Write a sequence for this structure.
């Protein structure tokens, strides 16, 4: 069964450093998402992406964040200058279509620790 | 704005007992609701979803949920818990805004032998 994959599974970085989290969505899916979950808190929406453009972004997704689909398979989340509060589990998801009832398929997540 | 509340961050049941995980939503428009499960070290996996076709929704692994508009609820149930059901369960609602999912806080289900 096709699945969303994410690399790395864990990343430790120093405050102020840039990190890139990578995702490979399911191959025929057109919509891509990033969510994050700070330890002990809710899973929160960051951004949705379609046709090489951001469709929607949350208040969390400020100028330090960016997303890109550099090629036909990868979808990346870049955090330019990491802060301690960016420590979280980051989930990538994809869906075949945009409808409100479309299932989003989630990857296993990347656990980011900022020191 | 839409929101989801899951009552009980931790629920413990005995193997073979009824599982009931609670989810209440707040939405100004007809909601579309989802239950996801997360096993350790894995991503979120869809259990079932409400799409307005039927109020009683059956999902994978013997789970089902009933949409009750009058109670603004979408509780998840399973008649008989199995040890393999131990996981974290998330209720979510989707919105027009970029298809974003708004999640509840999650409920960790523990199953005792």
């Amino acid at each position: 069964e096709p699945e969303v994959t994410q690399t790395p599974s864990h990343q430790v970085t120093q405050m102020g450093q840039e990190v890139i989290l990578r995702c490979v969505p399911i191959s025929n899916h057109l919509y891509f998402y990033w969510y994050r979950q700070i330890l002990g808190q809710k899973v929160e929406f960051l951004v949705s992406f379609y046709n090489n453009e951001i469709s929607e972004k949350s208040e969390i997704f400020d100028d330090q964040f960016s997303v890109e689909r550099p090629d036909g398979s990868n979808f990346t989340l870049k955090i330019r200058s990491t802060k301690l509060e960016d420590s979280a589990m980051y989930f990538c998801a994809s869906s075949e279509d945009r409808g409100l009832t479309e299932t989003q398929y989630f990857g296993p997540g990347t656990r980011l620790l900022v020191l | 704005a839409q929101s989801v509340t899951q009552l009980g961050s931790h629920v413990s049941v005995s193997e073979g007992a009824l599982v009931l995980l609670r989810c209440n939503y707040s939405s100004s428009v007809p909601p579309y609701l989802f239950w996801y499960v997360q096993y350790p070290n894995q991503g979120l996996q869809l259990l079932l979803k409400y799409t307005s076709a039927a109020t009683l929704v059956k999902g994978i692994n013997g789970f089902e949920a009933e949409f009750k508009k009058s109670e603004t609820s979408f509780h998840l149930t399973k008649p008989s818990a199995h040890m393999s059901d131990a996981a974290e369960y998330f209720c979510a609602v989707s919105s027009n805004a970029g298809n974003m999912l708004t999640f509840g806080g999650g409920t960790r289900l523990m199953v005792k032998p």
